[in-house]
Amino acid sequence: MSADTAYLFWWFSAGTLVLLTVGFYCVLATYNLIRALIGLEILIKAVTLFIIAAGYITGHQALAQSLVITLIVIEVVVITVSVGIVLNIHSHNDSLDARNIRNLKG
Fold first, then answer.
1. The domain at 3-104 falls in which architecture?
2. Inter-axis angle of helices 3-28 and 33-58, to 10 degrees?
3. What gap in Å lies between CA 87 and CA 81, rounded to an integer?
4. Cα separation of 9 and 81, whole Å?
5. pTM
6. Per-residue model confidence as pLDDT tens digits over 7-52
7. Tens of pLDDT, residues 60-88
């Protein structure tokens, strides 16, 4: 691994850690369900970027690409189902506040 590659990897990793922090903050610090989904999306993008960087550093770019494509397909399915659930909750409660989900019980 050359010095330029190591330098690039550390900057890429720092950016990934910033995205992870922002994603965790969005998921944990809000009661708005749409903001939580956006935070989840940011988290998944950070993991995707880290997998790409790790594949580049280790020389297993084909494996990293296949993992990233699989992750993107799973991400689309999860986000699509989650948005459907959020829209259904909004139609019943007229609110996107996660604290109002308890009203749907029973």
1. Orthogonal Bundle (1.10)
2. 160
3. 10
4. 34
5. 0.84
6. 888 888 889 999 999 999 999 999 999 999 999 999 999 999 999 9
7. 999 999 999 999 999 999 999 999 999 99
Quote the radius of gyration of the chain (alpha carbons, Å): 18
How is the chain split into domains, by residue range?
3-104
User: Cβ of 21: how many Cβ atoms within 10 Å?
Assistant: 13
Q: Taken in order 17, 22, 25, 31, is the CA torsion positive or negative?
A: negative
∠ Cα 20 24 26 (to 5°): 115
Q: Tell me if 23 sits within 8 A of 42, measured CB to CB.
A: yes
Between helix 61-93 and helix 33-58 the angle, nearest 10°, is 180
pLDDT value for 78: 95
Please enumerate in sequence order all residues whose Cβ is within 8 A of that of 97, keeping only pairs 6 or more positions apart, or say none.
Answer: 31, 32, 33
Please say whether the dihedral angle defined by the alpha carbons of residues 104, 33, 75 and 16, taken in this order, is positive or negative. Answer: negative
The answer to whether residues 47 and 13 touch, using CB atoms and an 8 Å cutoff, is: no
